[in-house]
Amino acid sequence: MTPEEIENAVAAGMPQTIEDLKALVAIPSIAFPGHPEEPVHKAAELTENLLRSAGLPRVERIDLDGGFPAVYGEAPAPPGAPTVLLYAHYDVQPPGDPALWKTPPFEPTVIDGALYGRGAADDKSGVITHVAALRALQGRWPVGIKVIIEGEEEYAGESLARFIESSPDLVRADAIVVADVGNPRVGEPALTTSLRGMAAFTVEVRTLAGAVHSGAFGGAAPDALAALMRMLTTLHDENGDVAVPGLPRGTFPGEAYSEEEFRATAGVLDGVSLVGTGSLADRLWASYAITVTGLDVPSVAQAVNAVQAVARARVTIRVPPSGDPAQAIEVVTEHLKKVAPWGAHVTFSDFTTGAGFRARGEGRARAAVERAMARAFGRPPREVGQGGSIPLVAALARQFPEAEILLFGPEDDHASIHAPNERVDLEELRRTITTEALFLAEYAKG
Ligand SMILES: [Zn+2]
């Protein structure tokens, strides 16, 4: 097919594509414990039917041990052609407070060229991108196609990663497209080439056998909560930069956002400054960030006049792709031990780590997707990073070190993923589908 034929096929298919996306968004496929399981299975079933409608000769559901099913599709490679694996997920985040939504989260609604609803962007737009790109090719597969759509990404289930480890041949490919990201701005194409990893642990501080009266003992009794607060404030310097020795700052090629844009997207209040120094791209994509994400201390409502004997904090570290999450935990916990005042007893527990990702700069697939994107958007893509992690990407990179992993998708930075009023811009969706379909054809050419 010529590029024009592909573009026209995608455009002609858009009304059906939008209807199918709406049907998928209408299903509350929340794979978190405490939510009904039946809609998750229903979304898997619809995903399976959608892949069948794209004409793939082999489509099946894969039951994963201890998890929701993944949906798999395949078309064999023409002789000598490479194989591409397409990834997305059909599960969604819980909607949160329905009062914050302008339209009901599971009643997909088009307003001003965007489809609103939970999962409209993250990541049912990714599912539909694959389906629509494959449909546009009308069964004339330029490369081998493999599709894997999972159902427990948001819940951070690990059954798919385990499955890939145990059955690598099923998903083995020369290039992998992860359609679970997007462009910083609608209409401005970007390839996500770097993901931060993450590490987290719980720190516990003990100073007394038990809490004691703050009148009788306060002033001399060592307060575990005060000790913990002193320790935590040493994690950053007065500018808000990470101040733990041994966590070097990195640099990212190219810009992220303007400060204005970042303030608006993050919802920073008037008069409140950002933290850290250096470019936003360096801070968000190439450097460590440490956040205290929880504290076990008496709540204000439960407060009594007592000096605390024990206090706990959950500490999360975002790790640049060049860093090692396990080593970051070692460095930060050593630091906290060192700065603990008054000989307080400090222990650490509940460690978790996830690796980051850095894409290789060149390769046949990378060149092909850059050509495809430039055509679909009318301008060449730039490189961006992402501050968050996608654990499966690290798992794929580990399992298939030779494969080129490409991250792009229709979830622009204003899509409000994981937030109320999530939406996908439908023109952005069309351009992304066009990119993917053109890429599959371009990649075949070499
Ligand atoms: Zn996602």
From TrEMBL:
Domain Peptidase M20 dimerisation intervals: 194-343
A Pfam short name: M20_dimer
GO-annotated molecular function: metal ion binding; peptidase activity
Keyword set, alphabetical order: Hydrolase, Metal-binding, Protease
NCBIfam families recorded: PRK07907.1 (NF005914)
Entries under PANTHER family matching the protein: BETA-ALA-HIS DIPEPTIDASE (PTHR43270), SUCCINYL-DIAMINOPIMELATE DESUCCINYLASE (PTHR43270:SF12)
Protein name: Peptidase M20
Lineage: Bacteria, Bacillati, Actinomycetota, Actinomycetes, Streptosporangiales
